[in-house]
Design a protein that fits this description.
Elements lengths: L2 H12 L4 H6 L4 E2 L10 E2 L20 H7 L2 H24 L35 H16 L10 E5 L13 E2 L3 H8 L1 H8 L5 E4 L3 E2 L2 E2 L4 H10 L5 E3 L7 H6 L5 H10 L13 H6 L5 H17 L19 H14 L1 E5 L12 E5 L7 H4 L12 H9 L4 E5 L19 H9 L3 E7 L27 H12 L4 E6 L7 H6 L2 E4 L7 H9 L32 H4 L17 E13 L6 E3 L2 E3 L24 E12 L5 E11 L10 E10 L4 E9 L5 E2 L5 E2 L4 E7 L5 H7 L4 E6 L1
Parallel strand pairs: 3-5, 4-6, 5-8, 10-11, 10-12, 12-13, 13-14
Antiparallel strand pairs: 1-2, 6-7, 9-14, 15-18, 16-17, 18-21, 19-20, 19-24, 22-23, 24-25
Length: 737
Amino acid sequence: MKREEARKRAEALVAQMTLEEKVSQLKYDAPAIRRLGVPAYNWWNEGLHGVARAGQATVFPQAIGVGATFDVELAGEIADVIATEGRAKYNAYSEQEDRDIYKGLTFWSPNVNIFRDPRWGRGHETYGEDPYLTSRLGVAFVRGLQGDGETMKAAACAKHFAVHSGPEGVRHEFDAKATQKDMGETYLPAFQALVEEAGVEAVMGAYNRTNGEPCCGSPSLQKKLRGEWGFEGHFVSDCWAIRDFHEHHMVTSSAKESAALAINNGCDLNCGNTYLHILNAYQSGLVTEETITESAVRLFTTRYLLGLFDGSEYDAIPYTEVESKEHLALAKKAALESVVLLKNDGILPLRKDKLKTVGIIGPNADSRAALVGNYHGTASRYVTVQEGLQDYLGDDVRVLTTPGCELFKDRTENLAFAGDRISEAKIVAAHSDVVILCVGLDETLEGEEGDTGNSYASGDKPDLLLPKVQRDLMEAVASTGTPTVLCVMTGSDVDLGYASEHFNAVMQVWYPGAQGGNAVAELLFGDVSPSGKLPVTFYESLDELPDFEDYAMQGRTYRYMTGKAQYPFGYGLTYGDVYVKDAKIVSGSMARAQSGVEDAGDKSACASSCGEAGPQSNEAGSAGEACAPQSVCVDIIIENAGDIPTEDVVQLYVKCRDSEFAPRNPSLCAFQRVRVEAGETKNIVLEIPGQAFTVVDESGCRRVDGRKFVFYVGCSQPDERSRELTGHAPVEISYEL
């Protein structure tokens, strides 16, 4: 069903409703209107990395792990599985007249906020720190979730709009102040891409204010969203965020004023209960019936697009699709692609026939919580790292195990002395040929403010250090001299300085999903080569970062940092030795346009829409009449000089050399995951979108402002630290408009 038809159907239905009935439909738990044949519907559902909080479902790696895959196609396939399982569950629940929370088809995913600071507890819900990577994966996720059928398979939601990435502890009162340049360059591009390219059906507002305006009642953000980008779906508040207007932000003085501010500024759906006061607001003259009607129409348009009234081709999806064999295989594939090998002195891959005893140590070795992150479903079986290795090794190799310590408490038994398992860890290590040491965090230590189980009230990290008990455990294991592979299970950057010096190999495993243990075992023993890349920077310390509350991008992320990373964005080793031998530009299509040129959904041209800043001229400083190409193709020759086949990620970065508005460091503008056999030389072509030739000025306008560009093509970014770690320098290409 086309949107125009769905909207007409919605308008006709809403026209039959009383004012009270219309208002009743604007809360997340919309009641039935039986006289009109409208069933109850609960809008609140989650599907960040699998259908969440509604029972059995395939549990994929957490979103940050998907970010580490740099695999656009995979992100779409994961989303398609989520939609399939969501439909299977919805179909079955509907037959039981079960309209409860987490059982609808409107998934409040993906989270395309930028992971700008490693302290943010919810950062692992995102695809990382780069707006281009985030937009490519986010667009694929939305397309996969919503499908291309006659009806929408499921409805996606881009969250949290906008400029939202902590601190969690003050999010209900915090004002995130960002320059127009930082908004246009970093915080908004992924949202724009999801709206303009993927047609995302919903957008969720953030808890915080942005530049003084509460995000769920912001005229400036709505002007950008519906005015400039042409968003036609519905807008939903974060849960109980509208209540914050009068209780914490203090921009209104009552619930009815808060409800009016939100709905008058485009918030159609209230996750919370403040819209119970809309009738009072209407009676006080703060809201018109036309505004209420419009929000109701938008919401019913979505329901018609999903085929919830007339039926859908997806109604026949059976419940047996939930956690099917094929879906579990995809979850394992995603885990295999997500793991990032940070260090390897040659110990990996391990040889099963060379080992008699393997020690498995650490609080996350046999932890289900460390598999799943947050916003997760319930797997029918969880394979921890310990279980995966035990299954893989079978009876051929003896396995010794110990947690070594608690996750963060100083003892495992309440009546014992502190560090009660340290001696056991040393004993296990001393009796083993190799140790697999599993440390890290889980959703109780990094997560969302207010989530049950957060050990720290806010969910944010106070620093980059692992809990002291785990640092003590690492030192104890290192002191035995037994060869050790460290598996780090976190959703964010932690300080790995000690690990880099004292352990033979280091793997960043993230929260790898319910199949994570199987994947880690196969990676450790070389059945599959690691191929993930860091979607965030691992910093040496927090000293080089601005204050957590500072939303200026200067000094943050790989694009603006001035120091040397501990492990850089885009970095990750394999068991092969893939590098770019040569690269050259092979084609370009120049396009002059006054209002933007579209290429694969990216907008670029001599002129662009700049909102309040007004229209742009074609003049661009030293660039004069230079115009951005619609796109440029780069022919790339890659080689695997190693003796093990592997996948790797070819990455292309751009730097404009003659514009004052260009980011400090080269920025990712194209990438592709590629499989290269041992000794193979392969040719691929990457397309650079026209937007790569633009910059964002201080007023937030994206435009051409330079002629001279340099592209860097390799399997990492072109920084000094990546060259040190990989032993390869990218190929540089100069290009002039």
